[in-house]
């Protein structure tokens, strides 16, 4: 067995121990995984997304989704591959939502060694109930935001409704940039928890 294989096995075993602790209720241990894999996830997302604020948002969302779906992790596979897939899917969803209406991405996104991104875009036929589904999603998100604590509600609105960047939010609220990022992380986590019960409407949220 090579040194690399031995290191991978040890890494997996270390991660499994942390994951078992999290599943047993020691949620603070998730910070260990976040610290260990944050730079890797940032690098992946930066290959696919250009705007740095969007990169930071998607990185936060990746770890939030990983934490909230930890019970679905399958031991025997590497945590790095699992969270890498979550990050990739987040980016694909993000890029898809940036596209004009009624155009979807059905083919997988691939990244070559020189970091080029290749997409296959396929038109789909009109869905008669699409406007209704969109309205339901919009109302559900609005209601979930309204239920957030006031300080979190304000920062979510500034970022995702007014579309201010991190520095603009910090300036508007007279708040350190790091605090803005931390509050956004907590606000998104609360929002995701609120919307989990409605995921039959939000498979691509």
Please supply descriptive tags for the structure shown above:
205 residues, disordered C terminus, mainly alpha, Rna Polymerase Sigma Factor, Chain: A
Written overview of the protein:
The chain is mainly α and 205 residues long. The protein has two domains: 3-123, Rna Polymerase Sigma Factor, Chain: A (Orthogonal Bundle), CATH 1.10.1740.10; 130-196, Arc Repressor Mutant, subunit A. 65% of the residues lie in helices and 5% in strands. The protein has helices at 3-23, 30-48, 52-68, 79-98, 130-146, 150-161, 166-173, 177-196; strands spanning 103-105, 110-111, 117-118, 121-123. The protein has a two-stranded antiparallel ribbon with strand order 1-4. A hairpin with a 5-residue loop joins β2 (110-111) and β3 (117-118). α2 (30-48) crosses α3 (52-68), α3 (52-68) packs across α8 and α7 (166-173) packs across α8 (177-196). The chain is globular. The chain starts with a helix and ends in a 9-residue tail after the last helix.
